[in-house]
Structure formats: C-alpha cells, structure tokens
Hints:
Number of helices: 13
InterPro entries: CB, DNA_brk_join_enz, Integrase-like_cat_sf, Integrase_catalytic, Integrase_recombinase_N, Integrase_SAM-like_N, Tyrosine_recombinase_XerCD
GO molecular function, one term: DNA binding
CATH topology of the largest domain: hpI Integrase, Chain A
CATH class of the largest domain: Mainly Alpha
Radius of gyration: 23 Å
Strand order of the largest sheet: 1-2-3
Helix content: 40-55%
Strand content: under 5%
Domain Core-binding (CB): 1-84
Distance between the termini: 76 Å
Largest sheet: 3 strands, antiparallel
Domain Tyr recombinase: 101-276
CATH architecture of the largest domain: Orthogonal Bundle
Pfam family, one: Phage_int_SAM_4
Amino acid sequence: MKKQEIITRFIKQARIENYSEATVKNYASALKLFLQYVSKLQANKISDDDIQNYLYYCTQEKKYSFSSMKQVLVIIRFLYDKVFHQAIPKVLDIKLRKPIYLPTVLSAKDISKLLSVTSNLKHKTILLLIYSGGLRLGELLNLKTGDIDSETMKIHVRQAKGKKDRYIMLSENVLTMLRAYYEKYKPQDFLIEGRKGGKYSPTSVQSVFKTALKKSGIKKAVTVHSLRHSFATHLLDEGTDIRYIQELLGHKRLETTQIYTHVSSHSINKIKSPADNLNL
C-alpha cells in the first residue's frame, strides 16, 4: 500500500467514526510524519523495533510533549487496527507518565489591565468573551450571532471539543459590550468576523492578546488560553462548586478540572503557615 493510499484510507475511516475535522487534520499530519520516518520500509514489514525507534526519536530528538506522544500512540494504533486490519503491535502497549504542570493564572486585576489598555472595541470584546465564559480559542471563533441569547442570558457553544454542545453564562458586562460591538461592526454570520467577513483567524486573536499583554506591562508567561484558566480559577476562588465549573468548561472528566484546586487561593489561603506562629 502506497503512502498516499494509507493516508487516504486513514482519513476516510476517521471521518466514518465521526472524528472532528480538526482531529482528522491533526491525526493525518502526525501520520505523515510517521510514514515519512519509515518510508524506506514496506508497511507490512515495519517491525516492533522500528516503531520503538520512532517513539524514541519523538521523545529524545523531537522533544515531543506528553499530549503529542499520546497522539503518536493513538494514530499508530488506529493505523494498524482500522487501516491495516492487523493486531496492534505490543510495543504500543505502554502507559505514558503524565507530567503535572500548573496553569499560569492572571489575577482579576491583570484581566482589568488587559481590557483597559485595549481601545479597539472588537479586540476588547474578544478578550472579555474568552475570559467571561472560559472559552477555548476555537470555540470563540466558531460562535455565530444566533448563539447569544440575551433573554436567558446564555451563550450556546456548539460542537466544541469532543463534538459536544454546552451552554455558558452571558455576563451583563459582556452583553453591554456586545450591543456596542453589534452597532459598530454589524456581524452577519460569525459573531467575530474578519474585515472581509467570515471567521476571524486564530493568529489575529493571539496577536490581540500579545499586544494587550505588552501594553499592560504584565510579565507573566501567559497565552490566550490563560484567560480560560483564569476564568476557572476565579470561579473556584469565589466558592463555585467544582462540578459546575467542569460543566462550564466542557471537561469530560472531573480530574481535568481539579487541576485548578492547586492554583486557587480559595483553598490555599485557608491554610495558615506555621511561620505565622513565630515571634519575630
């Protein structure tokens, strides 16, 4: 089977199994890299050692992250099981040790700074929308004008990660800003549109955030996604039940949401340091 035929069959099967287009695209890119690595070998003659060498190459030379390595394992397993219709190689029967990284969170004061230094109404609306509902970047860009319900004060997030719909709260402050935004920009389809219409680009949102960060003088190592982290952490600080936060974020597992308990001041500040008992 030739390389392009393998990729075509892989994509076809992934779509049959209702994977999102973003996932299909990412998996196909990862598959191409694997096939490129083993290009001198015939597909049916790839040994366990060849696969192990590729995994080693990804971790040691390419320095793949935990999530990237998970993806590599998934695509090779899928390749053998669903495209080659062969037994999954035993070398893939491994469990990666997941590193624990705590998210960097912006304070409420930091968020206010970012918004105050952003004079462009569209840019300010973008930043406030992401923070106010804990949106992923892709979720913001996919919002349509009809997804905003000012009567029930909800925003409908459609077909997000894992192809799941959910509702998030519509902040009064966001609604006020959206009304001004509608009046000025008059979006036709997507809530946030480019100059010539159509979906706004992710790189543009990242640029908006970087510009605001620079102007604000905030030195923390943060990204657009940190607004989502901040949303979750601030809710936890205010005593919101973690299961509600899980629903708002669209997390499948509670364990994913529980990472915020490690950075929330709500739990940390309840503990008194023994140093406070010292007479200094």
